[in-house]
């Protein structure tokens, strides 16, 4: 019998719901203060996770959830990039 591997859960900064890491998109802030979308989830820096839903992105944009979590102003391009990722 093989042991079931624990699925890493993360909390969406917009909806406050817990999801498996794969179901979320990671946004990273580096030490240099750069902000970017990290589809691999492996880049260095402080990460914030957001659900792969347009509603979650609109909510994060409205409530400034990402700004608060990463302690910086999130550029509009990041939200645009997230929307494009979700819409494919």
Automatic annotation (TrEMBL):
YlxR domain residues: 10-84
UniProt-recorded name of the protein: RNase P modulator RnpM
Naturally occurring in which organism (per UniProt): Gracilibacillus marinus
Domain of life: Bacteria
InterPro entries given in the database record: YlxR, YlxR-like_sf, YlxR_dom
Pfam families attached to this UniProt entry: YlxR
NCBIfam families: RNA_bind_RnpM
